[in-house]
Amino acid sequence: MESDAGKDESRKRMYRKCYDVEKLKKYVNEGKSNVEIAYLLDISVATVIAGVKAYGLKGMRKRGRPKKELIH
């Protein structure tokens, strides 16, 4: 069975084939949203999110409505 480090390396190799990793890193550092990055690299948003996780980048968080506070 592979170790976690081995899985991480194979994941990085897989993403390297799908898109340009340097461009992904550049767009994330510029603060572009996942949807913008997906459009610019012509890949799916899920692939962008997986690539951000694989490389440990600080990607954009979802900008939705804030969670409602529970009333006790």
UniProtKB/TrEMBL annotation:
<protein>
    <recommendedName>
        <fullName>Transcriptional regulator, LuxR family</fullName>
    </recommendedName>
</protein>
<feature type="transmembrane region" description="Helical">
    <location>
        <begin position="37"/>
        <end position="57"/>
    </location>
</feature>
<keyword id="KW-0812">Transmembrane</keyword>
<keyword id="KW-1133">Transmembrane helix</keyword>
<keyword id="KW-0472">Membrane</keyword>
